[in-house]
Design brief:
Number of domains: 3
Distance between the termini: 50 Å
CATH superfamily of the largest domain: HUPs
Number of helices: 8
Largest sheet: 6 strands, antiparallel, barrel
Shape: globular
Length: 358
Amino acid sequence: MRVLAAMSGGVDSAVAAARMVELGHDVTGVHLALSKNPQTYRSGARGCCSLEDSHDARRAADVLGIPFYVWDFSDRFAADVVDDFVAEYAAGRTPNPCLRCNEKIKFAAVLDRGIALGFDAIATGHYAVLREVDGRTQLWRSAEQAKDQSYVLGVLNQAQLSRCLFPLGPDTAKADVRAEASARGLYLAKKPDSHDICFIPSGDTAGFLAKHLGSSAGDFVDEQGVVVGSHAGSHAFTVGQRRGLHLGVPADDGRPRYVLGIEPTTNTVTVGPHEALAVRRIDGIRPTWAEAEVLGSWRGLVQVRAHGAALPAWIEGRTESITVLLDDATHGIAPGQAVVCYDGDRVVGSATIAATAR
């Protein structure tokens, strides 16, 4: 089988590529150039898109003895991930750019090009499990729960999953991956994992957004609409945020206040106590089903954060939307994020959170 190994420059993708080679597949490594100027993205251990990472990926490919290419997806990444990130914040929502990158770049644009070039599948270093059942490819949680990445893969559809390979997911612990990389002579065995948002070099999300969206004085208001402070732009905040509010009027009970809601049209941020963040209902739009549409009402689990807990719920599936009714309230869910639905440890589908209610 001709396999396109997506090599980020990290230890996971390098070992995934090595396992594909060991299984006898015809493997070609590819690194994605996501910025016209790599210096504008994170460097060192904090990113996955730096110039340094492309060199690390190339050295790993050399050790494995496989062809290696760098594909320029900078224009597509800017439009589908960076511009989307800015637009979502401008609309008062909180996007997940890594999830969007998986959806639009790594498993859409890359896979499309790979298939056009005659490749059969794409292999990555994600921690998740794929199983073939009755002619369909199912997506399951990784054997190592602490590293499970099924949440960020929940945006993939059946056509994409059927072309994916996740060699690390079934039985591999992170420590074993590093040991395997060392044994294979891959010098990046000790390279730290990437974190944070690759296209914000400083880690200052508020500053990045201010640069793109500007500053505009607005009010913090409490649940009664009383002004309790001012800010330089509602796009700098997200639901559930506590730090960095700098409110001018303390709460009557002296307790901390959190962002409860964002209204970009009036540039207003509503704040209140932690218990006001409680959510029992989640409305999602643009659902993506891993295998096939699951319509009607059914019991399942949902996850609303990349490393969040699985929450028991009733799920109502429709062609263009879903509604989730949680058994127990959870806190700090922001519109724009993803809700991923599970049947046990199997991914059923996902949707973008459009609204929440207590």
